[in-house]
């Protein structure tokens, strides 16, 4: 069940009304049942794996509290099992093929023949963070029901955000009725996300998918246009999903953290990662980069920590060399920026432009199906004669419009304190009209429905 489906919207409306007329204790069970239906709709394998992961984490927590003197060892074993489970589902087939291992065994064929359980990369990281925080003494005892909701809440289960215990569990524990302003804001946020996904991302996909399917048939100018448009697609797709999830949660009275904040207006690679997939970047910082030493050691040690963290980030995204290279590329960008800022300071508009160009080039590495395709595209870029149509080719209005709209929305995010205040001061009728127009555009101008990109991760 995806957020843009009629089934989800209808069920969300029913649950939102039900939550308004039930007691606090009953509201937890309503949300739990809704989340269970949401998970079961995703398939039997996804449901079973999630239940096993939740049971494993709860068992580790119980054992760690019972045998406190061995809590670190118990937690380490639990984390090892979680990582091993993720590895077998997501990476074993790829690693085995690289090592030329036999793929005929039952233990291999089982994991390869079944589709990757939806959301496993996200709720595994969330569970690992909870176990580590528990070992650090940062968590409080909670009921099993509250923990299950923390790990499986419908609004952040499949593709994040990756929430911390102190962001969600207190809300799950209290769970007051959603206020009118929350329901209104949640509905507006959901419609905005629907617009990003169906009008921007899905329509852009129709233009660029044929180009990436046969890049050798297109000139470098067209390929650059496709890369620019893919940067719009992946932002609209992923941030649109986040907006819909956060909006749905608000309708149910729960606030989830932002996962995007105008990433294409970042003026440095490090700021980009504070604006793009914010909760993943925060997880990598707190549970990988800082424990390795962060930037507290020598310059070389800092570079090693950065590269290792970003390699893990790339590998987390998928079992393919292009994701590993993409992670290494961003690690290199972060390293070069740390060095370059010691010698030169660009004006902010120029810094934003330079950062955007490097990020867009990184999306090429992220998007290609294999290294052969990447090599073919890069080779075509080096053919100077192929750019002879650069100024004579007709301007693709779709490319300009999509990019301009994406940047305009992100510019609005940076001015949110002012625009948000102005928006709240508008009459309800005016806000409803704007939301209605966005909804109309999302339905009438939608592209061919495409799966959410991050569902694959």
TrEMBL record:
It comes from the Bacteria. The chain crosses the membrane at residues 35-61, 73-92, 112-132, 303-329, 349-368, 389-412, 432-456. It is found in: Cell membrane. Keywords: Acyltransferase, Cell membrane, Membrane, Transferase, Transmembrane, Transmembrane helix. InterPro entries: Ac/AlaTfrase_AlgI/DltB, AlgI, MB_O-acyltransferase, MBOAT_fam. It is a multi-pass membrane protein. One of its GO terms (molecular function) is acyltransferase activity. Its main location: membrane. GO terms for biological process: alginic acid biosynthetic process. One of its GO terms (cellular component) is plasma membrane. Belongs to the membrane-bound acyltransferase family. This is MBOAT family protein.
């Amino acid at each position: 069940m995806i957020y843009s489906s009629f089934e989800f919207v209808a069920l969300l409306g029913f649950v939102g009304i039900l939550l308004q007329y039930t007691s606090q204790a009953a509201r937890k069970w309503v949300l739990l049942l809704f989340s269970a239906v949401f998970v079961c709709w995703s398939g039997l394998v996804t449901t079973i794996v999630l239940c096993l992961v939740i049971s494993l984490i709860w068992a580790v927590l119980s054992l760690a509290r019972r045998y406190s003197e061995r809590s670190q060892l118990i937690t380490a074993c639990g984390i090892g099992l979680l990582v091993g489970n993720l590895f077998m589902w997501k990476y074993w087939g790829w690693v085995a093929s690289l090592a030329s291992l036999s793929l005929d065994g039952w233990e291999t064929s089982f994991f390869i023949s079944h589709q990757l359980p939806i959301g496993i990369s996200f709720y595994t990281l969330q569970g690992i963070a909870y176990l580590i925080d528990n070992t650090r003494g940062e968590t409080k005892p909670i009921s099993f029901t509250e923990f299950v909701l923390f790990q499986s809440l419908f609004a952040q289960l499949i593709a994040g955000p990756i929430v911390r215990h102190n962001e969600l569990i207190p809300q799950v524990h209290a769970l007051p009725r959603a206020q009118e302003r929350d329901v209104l804001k949640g509905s507006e946020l959901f419609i905005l996300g629907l617009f990003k996904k169906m009008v921007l991302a899905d329509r852009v996909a129709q233009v660029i998918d044929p180009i990436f399917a046969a890049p050798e048939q297109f000139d470098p100018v067209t390929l650059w246009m496709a890369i620019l448009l893919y940067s719009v697609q992946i932002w609209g797709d992923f941030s649109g999903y986040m907006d819909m999830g956060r909006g749905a949660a608000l309708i149910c009275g729960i606030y989830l953290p932002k996962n995007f904040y105008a990433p294409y207006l970042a003026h440095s690679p490090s700021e980009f990662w504070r604006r793009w997939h914010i909760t993943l970047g925060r997880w990598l910082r707190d549970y990988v980069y800082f424990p390795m030493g962060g930037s507290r050691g020598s310059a070389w040690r800092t570079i090693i920590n950065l590269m290792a963290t970003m390699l893990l980030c790339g590998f987390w995204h998928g079992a393919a060399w292009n994701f590993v290279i993409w992670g290494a590329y961003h690690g290199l960008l972060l390293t070069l920026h740390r060095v370059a800022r010691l010698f030169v300071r660009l004006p902010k508009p120029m810094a934003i432009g330079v950062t955007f160009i490097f990020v867009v080039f990184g999306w090429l590495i992220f998007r290609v199906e294999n290294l052969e395709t990447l090599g073919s595209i890069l080779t075509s870029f080096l053919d100077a004669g192929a750019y002879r149509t650069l100024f004579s080719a007709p301007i693709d209005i779709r490319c300009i419009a999509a990019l301009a709209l994406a940047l305009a929305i992100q510019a609005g995010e940076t001015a949110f304190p002012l625009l948000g205040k102005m928006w709240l001061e508008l009459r309800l009728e005016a806000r409803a009209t704007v939301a209605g127009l966005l909804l109309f555009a999302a339905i009438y101008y939608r592209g061919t429905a495409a799966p959410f990109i991050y569902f694959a991760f």
